[in-house]
Amino acid sequence: ALWALAEIRRIGGRAFLDALSLGIEFTCRIGNAVSPEHYARGWHITATCGVFGAALATGKCLGLDVEQQVWAMGGAAAQASGSVETLGFMAKSIGVGHSARGGLLAALLAERDYDGPPEPLEGLRGFLNVTGNDPRFSEVTGELGLRWEALKNIHKPYPCGIVINAVIDGCFELLARKVSVTSIESIVLTGNSLLQQRADRPKVLTGRESRVSAQHAVAATLIFGKAGLWEFSDEAVHDPRVLEFRKRVSIKADDSVAVSNARLDVIYRGGRTERIEVKDARGTDNRPLTDVELEAKFRLLASAYAPDCMQREELIDAIWSLDTRDDAGAITAYAVPRS
């Protein structure tokens, strides 16, 4: 949403980052206020709450006054949508993309005095009460400036749902012990209930679906020794070895286990057992990805999905120096394919 706005309105780099931080922070806070029941009902929280963050961020850059910003939130509430049922399908991207577009639209309309309800979040039929069982309003506004939810956000080290990260880390630890995959009878994964809700999908049919399947992630990582783009492709999904091994993986829910942690109980042929405990998956605040790793991830994704965009190094340098730039929108030129 901010990049789109920056292409039509001049936004300085520091102002851009300020607004981005605001949008991320309140997307997370609004999500926390209705979790975990919001997701359990089937709402896709990235899309449903992301529209509010987009409205706040773009509204700040537009210089909306308090009343207009509330109207922008009302416009966002009218568009908040997204279903967990779409995970693993292209339709998921529609919801996430729409949240960015919808937030920008809400802010632009509010700038023109397109009004909305005075309590779009906390009203009797506001977003929080409608999509949550017992919303915790203090999660939205409590400890402002002291508690930063944005700092708890993570960078994904693998091309799959974040609840699977710790599981994949455990698989790499298992491989580091020189275990023969063929000697494994079964593996029981224990994690937060979100792992079961989101990723208990043993019978995926496509690479896109496999990104939200813990069973596939375990099978592919152990068999191929990697967890990159190809390991979550259609070809990997239909590999006979992966199809067979997925049947050996089951999931147990334990809410005493943090989302960033996981436990792998490995049962070998012959009866021997082994347990691997993963605390703080890669990419979390206690094990953050390095700048070098982030750049490598960007280069890999850009070469795979935007091969015609040749100014990747210039774009990397521009992003790192964004706070010093007078025009954030000018950076988008580096993402345009060269003819």
Please state how the strands of the largest beta sheet are arranged side by side: 2-1-3-4
At CATH level 3, the topology of the largest domain is 2-methylcitrate dehydratase PrpD
Described by the principal axes of the CA atoms, the overall outline is: globular
Number of domains: 3
How large, in whole angstroms, is the Cα Rg? Answer: 22 Å
* Helix fraction by DSSP (H/I, runs of at least 4): 40-55%
Contiguous uncertain segments of 5+ residues: none
Instruction: Tally the helices.
Output: 16
Specify the CATH homologous superfamily of the largest domain. Answer: 2-methylcitrate dehydratase PrpD
Question: How would you describe this structure to a colleague?
Answer:
The structure is a single chain. With 339 residues, this protein is an alpha+beta fold. The protein folds into 3 domains: 2-154, 2-methylcitrate dehydratase PrpD (Orthogonal Bundle), CATH 1.10.4100; 162-278, 2-Layer Sandwich (60s Ribosomal Protein L30, Chain: A); 291-339, no CATH class. The chain is built from 16 helices and 4 strands. β3 and β4 (273-278) form a beta hairpin. The mean pLDDT is 96.
